[in-house]
Amino acid sequence: MMYIQEACRSTPVLAACDVAVVGGGIAGIAAALSAARAGAKTILLEQQYALGGLATIGLVTIYLPLCDGTGRQVSFGIAEELLRLAAAAEGKDPVADWKDRRTATAARLECTYNPNLMALEAERLLQEAGVEILYGAQVCETQVQDGAIRALILETRSGRSAVSVKSVVDASGDGIVIRLSGEASAVFRQKNILAAWYYTAEDGKYRLHPVGACDDPDTYQEAEAAQSGQTRYTGLDFMELSRFTQDAHRVLMEDYRKRGEPSDRYQLAMIASIPQIRMTRRLDGCLVPDEPDACVRYPDSIGMIGNWKRRGPVYELPFSCLHGRRIRNLLAAGRCISVTDRMWDNTRVIPACAVTGEAAGLAAAMGGDVTALHIAELQDALARRGVLLHEQQLPPR
Ligand SMILES: Cc1cc2nc3c(=O)[nH]c(=O)nc-3n(C[C@H](O)[C@H](O)[C@H](O)COP(=O)(O)OP(=O)(O)OC[C@H]3O[C@@H](n4cnc5c(N)ncnc54)[C@H](O)[C@@H]3O)c2cc1C
Fold first, then answer.
1. Which of 75, 191, 244, 365 is the most buried (most CB within 10 A)?
2. How confident is the model at residue 200 (pLDDT cuts 50, 70, 90)?
3. Whether this model's pTM surpasses 0.90
4. Whose CA is nearest to atom 3 of ligand 1?
């Protein structure tokens, strides 16, 4: 590889804030909302020009369950608020519906939604909360001093600029700030399969086609995968992501054509504008929870999630999987929190992203220095917002 030397430069400081949230997916929306509601001057930096990430412009539009599958709601707070927001845009109330049906039908507390409305409604919600949203702002560097991030460097349409920060939430999905700042990280070893979810319009109705259902990390066998000849993707390299995108477009077109002839009654309606990659890089944090058979009681729990594939399990999420040991004012939220590969399949989905986003945003607003944070104060503040922290607070089955 050849290299060129770039000239050293001075970078203008565009803004200063208490909390910078990097990434405006579900985790970033929850984190920014949470921090701003706690009174912090909050800036959300998003490289695209819409909020929601995979959950909107990635066309992943199934808000997975906030319940444990046995009739008990386990995720609350902003996770519930965003579920209601997603459904309300289409005139639905999934919580009331579920409460009516849960015992009779074993229904789960989840919903599908319109990605465009979700992106617009989330933007309105953040604006109302006082979050400054900066679109087209790609974080490409961090300035770290004495174990804390002092500034984020952005590439924007107007060139490079900086935002000085007191604390940062990495909600980039890919652990971008974790990597740039030198915090410990780990990558998803088994890599991702191709996914090409898209919408058609059929007889006046939109229909989601989830091409590329996820594989199961519990049963994944490396040797078998290698033998199958199936291409797998790390999602970490831009050349590979370009290939992934073109592979996804090809598979999507094949699937679309196979389903019928385009006509007034059958049209391709929407394709994703970001790559649909599930797991890439995550924090290797103070704790790395594994998927237990039964719920582990974490004294520093910041909320709970269910298991979207199985009825029964409830997982408490500890605060110590949201931060590492090297950078004291950096918190992770969403699909880049610290968990093992098999637990990752459960924490990468929308409810967990909202739960961890709310806690990370609040912790960041409370000063953001994880070495000085009183967990009990964070937990009290979450509890005041209606978040349940421990399984024992749930009604018996
Ligand atoms: C194919 C597929 C199917 C799925 N199915 C479901 C499902 O049915 N239900 C479900 O609940 N979950 C599903 N998931 C998982 C879930 O949708 C996502 O993992 C979740 O929405 C991730 O949220 P996030 O906020 O952590 O990350 P993302 O949604 O990835 O958001 C990260 C945001 O950060 C921005 N960003 C990244 N880098 C930078 C940077 N350097 N500077 C500024 N901004 C940056 C990105 O543009 C993006 O908007 C699926 C995922 C995939 C890929």
1. 75
2. very high
3. yes
4. 60
Cα(337) to ligand 1 centroid in Å equals 13
Given ligand 1 and candidates 54, 57, 154, 165, which is best to mutate, with the most ligand atoms within 8 Å of its CB?
54
204: in domain: yes
Q: How far is the CA of 25 from the centre of ligand 1 (A)?
A: 6
Is residue 214 over pLDDT 80?
no
Report which of residues 159 and 221 the model is more confident about.
Answer: 159
What pLDDT, on a 0 to 100 scale, did the predictor assign at position 209? 97
Q: Residue 227, exposed/middle/buried by CB under 10 A (0-12, 13-18, 19+)?
A: exposed
**DSSP sequence for 321-377:** GS--SS-TTEEE-GGGSS--HHHHHHHSSHHHHHHHHHHHHHHHHTTS-TTT--HHH
Do 349 and 366 share a structural domain? yes
Q: Are residues 231 and 163 in the same domain?
A: no
For residue 176, the ligand 1 atom closest to its alpha carbon is 41
CB 348 less than 6 A from any atom of ligand 1: yes
* 306 Cβ closer than 6 Å to some ligand 1 atom: no
Same domain, residue pair 246 and 318: no
Instruction: Give the range among 24-28, 120-124, 144-148, 364-368 with minimum mean pLDDT.
Output: 364-368
pLDDT reported for residue 25: 98
Query: Contact 178/330 with Cβ under 8 angstroms?
Result: yes
pLDDT at 113 over 90: yes
Pairing of strands 159-170, 330-332: parallel
Q: Is residue 371 part of a domain?
A: yes
Tell me which of 13-22, 273-282, 286-295, 362-371 is least confident.
286-295
pLDDT classification of 222: cutoffs 50, 70, 90: low
pLDDT at 89: 77
- Give 92-108 as a DSSP string: --HHHHHHHHHHHH---
- Quick one: 248 and 292 in the same domain? no
Domain match, 208 and 266 both? yes
| Domain annotation covers residue 362 | yes
6 occurs within a structural domain: no
